[in-house]
Amino acid sequence: MENKYNHKQIEKKWRGVWAEKPINPPDNSKPKFYCLDMFPYPSGSGLHVGHWRGYVISDVLSRHKIMQGYEVLHPMGWDAFGLPAENYAIKMKIHPEEAVKDCIKIFKTQLNDIGTVYDWKNELSTTDPAYYKWTQWIFVQMFKKGLAYEKEMPLNWCPSCKVVLANEEVIAGGCERCGTEATKKNLRQWMLRITDYAERLLADLDGLDWPEKVKKMQSEWIGKSYGSEIDFKIDGSNNAIKVFTTRPDTLFGATFMVLAPEHEFVMQIYTNEQKNAIEAYVKAAAAKSNVDRMAAKEKTGVFTGAYAVNPLSGGLVPVWVSDYVLADYGTGAIMCVPAHDERDFEFAKKFGLEIRQVIQKEGEQITELTEAYIGEGVMVNSGQFDGTPSAQGKEVVLEYLEEQGIGKKTTNYKLRDWVFSRQRYWGEPIPLIHCEKCGVVPVPEVDLPVELPRVEFYEPTDTGESPLSKIDEWVNVSCPTCGAAAKRETNTMPQWAGSSWYFMRYPDVNNSNALVSKEIAQKWLPVDYYIGGVEHAILHLLYARFYTKFLYDIGVVNFEEPFKKLFNNGMVMKKGGGKISKSKDGESFSPDDLVANYGCDALRMYELFIGPPEQDAEWDSRGIEGTFRFLNKLWKLADDVRANPAQTTKELEFIKNKMIYDITYRLNNLNLNTVVSGFMEYTNKLSDLVKTGGVDKATMEVMVRLLAPFAPHMAEELWELFGNNGSVFAQGWPACDASKMVEDTIQIVVQVNGKLRGDVTVDPNSPQEDIIAAAKAAIAAKLEGCTIVKEIYVKGKLVNFVVK
Ligand code: ANZ
Ligand code: ZN
Fold first, then answer.
1. Of 507, 582, 629, 705, whose Cβ has the fewest other Cβ atoms within 10 Å?
2. How far lies 734's CA from each of 550, 675, 689, 706, 779, in Å?
3. What does the mean pLDDT of the chain come to?
């Protein structure tokens, strides 16, 4: 009997079976597991192999959890508002609403072709009025709590997309989408006070089971810094310039000061000789973006002609203006210590200003500095403080300044309030009404959603106003409070709005009375496992955490963190490196042909096999032939065992249990590429055994069950061929009988900076290097991007990595 692996037929058959009899039916008696993918924005070219990498991982985890007896929620939806969808629609000259519908159709077909267990009954799209009703509702609650406010702001402006760009959308001075150089434009904006949550957003990072790298990026973005405000009296005036510094210990070395060009004193203190130069400089600075100012290669600046008094040394220090000082950080003015700050050093060198060393590295003599010394040391040239270690000096100097009434402790955050309005068509209308008498009035909740009007012209206006402002019948309304003629807000929300809370909606997607019901939230939320690319490490995750905390504060949900566990999958890169561009490479990286030729099980296996899931990996479409050959070999092995099953032996018992152990262990640690290589090794080993003594049915059936999350169609088919009834997914995950495994192993804890981050099973008798290496592999994803400075092994107990 020649029984060939016919992936086409098998995959079609099982997808039909699953559609009729889902492998994950609702069952309240089971524990829940909520496994979430970062949802895509549907674009025209469909999914490419890079999207699939993350989706295969989440699908494997979901199927594994189903087999372990969980009721799994694994939903999918569409982040379909926003610039990418709108720009695509404009390019293709189809209305965004239609464009989005078409794209979703393509995406959905493709996702089904990969054999994913998405719960389509929970599908959502951020563009659905029944969904964005709640996006608007959340905004109204924030408005009522005073978290939303209007502000006239010089904003980053892309002259090509004709759209305001958030700071994070400006990459190296250019528009994130089209690369055109960003300029500035003054516009009225809606802002959200995310800064009110800065401290909680920072503090709660600690308890999250997330990659350390992501936590570090979030923490740096929030950017808390402890420092002092110090007053420098302006010579010949009663005014004082307040500076923010993190280094009061260097105060004696402050030999000049710099004000941001926007600082209010600039126009008050310059001398007549400097008037023209200052005015020209301030004007030029206003045209530049913050990003450009920070990135400028050469320091520029102008002397105001005025002096201030160093409060400790009593010396006169010249006051300069330069755009490397930002107006909206700290006090917008700094004391400059060129000996110990790189930027100040550069500035002093360029303009010939005094450099005075006040911190000395222990055991070194003072020589002429060729660069700023930014490290710790002891205070020198610092009067009564000489000899004080710099770390201590920060406190001591500050205490002295506080006594004198010229300094105080402060904390600064880099986090800024969130610019929440966009002057574009394709977004949620901001549900507010402007009334001459009543001011800004929120749209009453019964009138939500404020639907986006269907229009012919949705291209952005080049005035910076939203295209909605041109639709009189939509704009003109009566004030909900006083009934007088009033106007709707015409700005729309950023794409981030819909994606900041979507995970709360999936479990209760049809609820028209609440964002999510209390009982359903209680059961399903928060998300247990969140999977997606590291490109969302900062903004999306920060906004989602902010929304969750807000909804917690107003009693909608009872948890403060949305995602218990986070996994960042690496990207799929082109051969030789380089990102896959959806527009340029879409075709050659489309999974469709691969599915047709090799089957989705082979593609799934290859997506996992190309490298550790947390790292970027290079794609080679020919590589799939390898996993395809392996699946064929496994198929033949199963065929042979079925034709000629052997009796079990001690050796087979060992192999069976070791296989369960290896695959489970690697799967639990998300070492999914080594799961695939493990299957390859066991397939080879068992194929050899078939030729010598034979392989028993039980071992082969265990292998099929282990295979199920990875190659689900083949596993179902083989399970059936072995004469079993019911889905392989109803079989439970195989348990390993350790007594059948000769090697003795123990479990030890793995820590990062003293905090529990995982565990690893090791042979306690193996050498320390091996144990540390195993521990490292076990939490590789969490160590990504960290520098290990020390490795500590406590025999038989734990491994601790000290990282920077
Ligand atoms: C004197 C000094 C001496 C400083 C020294 C550093 C080293 P973080 O940690 O980022 O908060 N600074 C303050 N406000 C600024 C502004 N608006 N624009 C640009 N730079 C500003 O950095 C705080 C330090 O950045 C402050 O401490 C100040 O320089 C500078 F050896 O003051 B320092
Ligand atoms: Zn009114």
1. 629
2. 43, 15, 22, 7, 24
3. 92
- Which amino acid residue places its CA nearest to atom 10 of ligand 1? 225
Ligand 1 contacts CB of residue 133 (under 6 A): no
Tell me if 246 CB under 6 Å of ligand 1.
Answer: yes
Which residues have C-beta within 8 Å of that of residue 470, sequence separation ≥ 6?
Answer: 457, 461
Tell me the mean pLDDT in the region 133-140. 98
Q: Is the CB of 245 under 6 A from ligand 1?
A: yes
How remote is the CA of residue 244 from the centroid of ligand 1, in Å?
A: 7
Q: Return the ligand 1 atom nearest residue 225 CA.
A: 11
Going by pLDDT thresholds of 50, 70 and 90, the confidence category of residue 1 is very low
Does the domain formed by 224-413 have CATH 3.30.420.10?
A: no
Q: Is 244 in the pocket of ligand 1 (CB under 6 A)?
A: yes
Q: Does the C-beta of 410 come closer than 6 Å to ligand 1? A: no
Q: How far apart are CA 343 and CA 256, in angstroms?
A: 13
Domain range annotation of the chain: 30-135+496-585, 224-413, 743-803
pLDDT digits (tens, 9 = 90+) for 244-294: 999 999 999 999 999 999 999 999 999 999 999 999 999 988 877 666 777
What 3-state DSSP class applies to 80?
coil
For 35, 124, 174, 504, 516, the CA distances from 510, given in Å and listed in that order, are: 20, 9, 41, 12, 9
Q: Which fold has domain 743-803?
A: Ubiquitin-like (UB roll) (3.10.20)
Q: Find out if CATH 3.30.300.30 is the number for domain 30-135+496-585.
A: no
